# Entry
Amino acid sequence: MTIQNQRAGGAAKPAVAPPPAASTIASGWLHTAKFLTSAPELHFLPALTVPEIAFVGRSNAGKSTCINILTQQKQLAFASRKPGRTQHINLFTLGKQGATDAVLADLPGYGYAAVPKQDKIRWQQVMANYLVTRENLTAVVLLCDPRLGLTELDDILLDVIRPRVEQGLKFLIVLTKADKLTRSEGAAALSVATLQAGGGDATLFSAPKRIGIDAISQQLWQWAHPAVQAASESPGPAVPDQVQ
Ligand SMILES: Nc1nc2c(ncn2[C@@H]2O[C@H](COP(=O)(O)OP(=O)(O)O)[C@@H](O)[C@H]2O)c(=O)[nH]1
Ligand SMILES: [Mg+2]
# Structure
């Protein structure tokens, strides 16, 4: 995936500023992310009506790094590392102040070996409950280190959300740490993940090489603003053919 929106070198400055590119709109919107709340279980979360996009994945997959890069905030997702918050669902609002139009949900990483078994089981139940019943959940982003591929716990998660994906829940697999792969390894991992994503999609991401940031940002923005996207895609009720 290439970085979009690169300026052509030496191009003359237009007299009228062009409208902001889709990538600029998406990254500006993500930059508004603010911590809203942290909850140990689903029923402690506020009931919301705005679209909610959940980030899930194994511990160490690169979830915090990805959220921080997308929101251009170095510490945002590290709130979940504070003692007592490690097994919490953290919500972040998006949108200008007083005009929240979406929420990001950061779910704790799973599969960390040092966690006691009872805690693992409890957490799997909290997560499954969240993924199955959270009403405003619009999309799930599953982060995965492509050197490990999807693990058993990722597969369980996919099984849990499959019925909702069939009913329209959006789903994206983000293959993190793409800088650790050669170009051909990256392409191979992407085609496997695209198949595994079922009705969803897959994309490569790298924090140090800044791969995939625009594509993921724009995807999140579109999920949260489907009406705007539909309006810009559709020819609209515009003018009948004969009146041009
Ligand atoms: N090379 C590389 N390392 C990464 C990337 N993203 C995260 N990491 C590293 O992977 C480790 C786990 O990242 P973190 O974001 O804390 O993962 P989390 O447990 O899923 O939140 C850290 O050492 C990060 O620096 C990436 O795109 N490339
Ligand atoms: Mg983390």
Q: What stands out?
A: DSSP finds seven helices and seven strands in the chain. The beta strands are 34-39, 52-57, 89-94, 102-106, 137-144, 170-175, 201-204.
